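Lab notes, practical 5.
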Amino acid sequence: MKNGTGKRRTRQNVNEALHALMLEKPYDSITVQDLLDRSSVSRSTFYSHFDNKDDVLVSYHAGFWEHISKACMRWEDGSLIIAPVAALAAHLREETYREFALSLIRAGRMPALRALALDHLSRGFESELMQIAGGREPRVPLDVTARFIATTCFDMVIWGVESGASHTPAQMEAMFQKLVQPSIESALGISLRHI
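Output from the prediction step:
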């Protein structure tokens, strides 16, 4: 048990070091030595947990998207809110985090991170859709519907970062809901207003 806690702590320290460094400089200019210095982890310990810097990046993002996927749908004032689009858009609108995301896009790391995000989000959405369906047979398989929602969510938020879209996070959220809710209703064969 103690060994498992130490491993988690080491991985967390290195992940936090990467996050802090990416707020200071572009991803491509960060070295493994930078990570070692910032996290106070030895080189041998680092390589017992990670293959390289890209492996740390994947680890960091897996944790982030796992957290997001646990709160991917919620009821608010009698309406189903699908995906935290406003929260993600607001987070990435902050200059520091926008630069963080743009750094990953420029470094060509976004396709792999997109795949990771979609896997986590899809699992979260599928679980929520299963509860909403309540045992009814959906018109479209739940995994297909979940992937559609996850893809739309991720791509809309990243588009907002890349394009510098002038829409506010609340506007992005409202547009997303208007696009996705009818798709879910059609796929499940139910009205979300009558659940």
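Observations recorded by the TA: The beta strands are 73-76, 79-82. The mean pLDDT is 89.
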